[in-house]
Amino acid sequence: MQKSADKKPTKAATETLVGENKKARFHYEILERYEAGLSLKGTEVKVLRQGQISLDEAYARFDGEELWLLGATIPEYSHGNLQNHEPKRKRKCLLHARELKKLKAKAQIKGLTIVPLRVYFGGRGFAKVTLGVGKGRKLHDKREHLKDKEAKREIRNA
User: Fold this and answer.
1) Any idea what the CATH number is for the domain that residue 33 is in?
2) Of 84, 83, 87, whose CA–CA distance to 71 is shortest?
3) What is the mean pLDDT of residues 56-78?
4) What is the pLDDT of residue 96?
5) How far apart are CA 157 and CA 94, in angstroms?
6) What is the dihedral of CA 137, 140, 143, 145, to 10 degrees?
7) Which residues touch 19 (CB under 8 Å, ≥6 apart)?
8) Residue 11 domain-assigned?
9) Is 102 a member of any domain?
10) Across all residues in the chain, what is the average pLDDT?
11) More confident residue, 87 or 157
12) Domain with 56 in it
């Protein structure tokens, strides 16, 4: 009798996507990506497990030495009580100190913005956010981006 090899599940298989910011890839040219943990309250985690979050107007900003996620909307938990959270409160992003230093240096460069790209639960069940350092696109850049996407789609369909 042969033993079956123990295979680890792939990273993509262990992640559970909660929300994605598709507009960010259109409005910004993403130069770098970082994975950060999120400091959340209990009712926020329950709402995220239901798949409810809006990252449309969200961005990240430094306050001292800490990185905060602002503008992300997590609606109130339907079965919550007085301990329920505020939907648009700022949430702390958890990164290593060296990553925070790199990110802070990039954020101080004129024209670069830190935007959340997606929120998901990692393999161990913790809420994670993928942050992108992006450079804003001008209107003509957005048009070129759309033309390139259209051309790639036509090539793929042909």
Assistant:
1) 2.40.280.10
2) 87
3) 86
4) 93
5) 42
6) -50
7) 51, 52, 53, 54, 55, 118, 119
8) no
9) yes
10) 82
11) 157
12) 16-157
